[in-house]
Design brief:
globular, four-stranded mixed beta sheet, single chain, kinase
């Protein structure tokens, strides 16, 4: 952990900020090709990070910076997945804001932590949908660009009656129209972050530049392994502090079985040998575990939900909540518990961004356990 972040979590479950380094105020910015919905956000950082400004944290707090994807999620509710060549009817359908990057940023905002989102949307209705969802969640969009050369990314989410889902992603502006070199303004936000969150739904070249900039400034980087079904380059792994896969992604990245905890542990050892010192594994209804090279793994059981309606976004909620707890100075065990509580609340609401919990709800759940 960097020396710029220090906070304590009291026995009464109240968060006490003890920030020792202030985040600098940057001049006003403009974004090329920005649409009118984004222009209103071209102000100094952290104008407001909560719908209720009275709950906003100290604007000098080093922010969570999420660099990643934003999608319009097209939900279809079905009883089962169609077989090959089969057509079935959906019970309902709707379009909601999502994408791993936007989900994680929205989670940070709803937890009332200063959060930046760096990403791209198209100049279309889906871009407006995502912008409005992030704004309402209290996320700072000074570094969100609207590009004319590609539509907003979208995803088809097939939601089954048991809450499980299957997702097909169309990259759109998440994968296209990125500059060859990330702007100094974007990288300056990264260098002044408290922690940086990345995923694999944007070009790896972007993730490498961002992670390198963060590492050079001593800013911790968490890489969510979700997204592209390809190996992660050693170059990127060199700049990552914590890699966070689920068990399926862990198996894919290592080529090893991950059915049991012993198998998961063996797969993590392979990642350690690749240079990843900390691996945060999301295990679905089996909870989670943090593996730190040279230490015993920390296990966190799942915090049961009253009813599972939709698991979409639960992993993003877990990762972002863990990051918020970490940057605020909690112990690793407390980070796992805080993230498990947030994920438990997430699966009880349909949609990705709409299901992200408020800080008060997470703390209330922790107090009730």
């Amino acid at each position: 952990m960097s020396a710029i972040r220090a906070a304590v979590f009291s026995q009464s479950n109240q968060w006490h900020e003890q920030v020792q380094t202030h985040f600098p105020t940057h001049p006003n910015r403009s974004i090329n090709n920005a649409n009118p919905n984004l222009q209103s956000n071209r102000r100094n950082p952290f104008p407001c990070f909560s719908v209720d400004a009275s709950k906003s944290p100290n604007p000098a707090t080093p922010p969570l910076v999420v660099v990643g994807s934003a999608n319009a999620d097209i939900y279809v509710e079905i009883d089962r997945l169609p077989k090959e060549g089969e057509t079935i009817s959906a019970k309902s359908g709707q379009t909601l804001a999502g994408g791993k990057g936007a989900n994680q940023a929205a989670c940070g905002g709803k937890l009332s932590y200063p959060t930046y989102f760096v990403g791209q949307v198209g100049e279309d209705a889906n871009g407006k949908l995502i912008t409005e969802a992030l704004e309402s969640g209290g996320v700072c969009l000074d570094r969100l660009s609207a590009v004319s050369g590609a539509p907003t990314g979208h995803a088809v989410v097939m939601l089954q009656s048991d809450g499980q889902n299957s997702i097909i992603i169309v990259g759109g502006s998440n994968m296209e129209c990125w500059p060859e070199r990330i702007s100094d303004e974007d990288l300056e936000v990264v260098r002044n972050a408290g922690i940086v969150l990345l995923q694999r739904e944007i070009p790896e070249s972007v993730n490498v530049q961002v992670a390198k900039a963060a590492k050079s400034a001593g800013v911790p980087v968490i890489l969510d392994a979700g997204g592209m079904d390809t190996p992660i380059s050693r170059e990127l792994l060199n700049f990552v502090d914590i890699l966070s896969p689920n068990e399926t992604e862990l198996g894919r990245l290592t080529g090893m079985p991950t059915e049991s905890f012993e198998q998961i542990s063996n797969a993590v050892v392979k990642l350690h040998k690749m240079g990843v010192k900390q691996v945060l594994v999301k295990l679905g209804d089996k909870g989670s575990a943090l593996f730190v090279d040279g230490e015993e793994p920390l296990k966190q059981p799942v915090i049961s939900a009253a009813k599972v309606l939709d698991t979409t976004g639960a992993g993003d909620t877990f990762t972002a909540s863990f990051a918020v707890a970490l940057v605020e100075g909690k112990s690793k065990r407390e980070c796992l518990r805080f993230a498990a509580a947030a994920a438990s609340l997430c699966v009880q609401v349909k949609g990705a961004i709409p299901s992200m919990p408020e800080r008060e709800s997470v703390l209330n759940l922790l107090q009730s356990l």
